[in-house]
Structure prediction request, 199 residues.
Amino acid sequence: MSPEDPRTARTKGRLRESLLAECADRPLAEVSVSAVVRRAGVGRATFYLHYEDLTALAVDACADVVHAAVDALHAWQTGPSAVPPAEPPATLAAFLVQAADRAPLYRTLLLQGGGGPLGRRLHRELSARARAEREAVGAPQPELVASAVAAAFTGVLADWLHEDIRAEPRALADHLWRLLWALHGAIGPGGGPKADRTR
Prediction:
């Protein structure tokens, strides 16, 4: 069956929900394929038809956090030439609150410094979005800056989830926002929002 097949989508959806439910009670390392398929109401053969192992399923189940991160960082954007605000969009702090709720699972897949399968996926999607934005407005060095922005966000998020960085979500959102737009503005004109020098 093709990935677009509704039956495939429903089955994978049940498996994702099952894994997240299992991980609410115990670490991913203690979750078994048997437990996941039993909760999802599918057979082991069906599981392996769609996923190589539990890690692959976990990354798929956590894909929403990647999309949520990308959307949170770009919630302000109404078009390629839109000017970013000086303050981070409220959705960024809200995203961090939600990420903290599933920190034990995310820490398994998003390693310190931004490594791991979830880290690679997050970096890839953030980099693609940032590169497209810079290309749309003709900003210089789109690949270089996009890579730096994606690496900074992914690394800081990972270290915060691992509690190497101590900050409340709203404070972290503010610091991240300033950091990322400083990177955007480091090469070429028209970088990001000017820092509020009253702070």
Remarks:
- The CA atoms of residues 174 and 199 lie 12 Å apart.
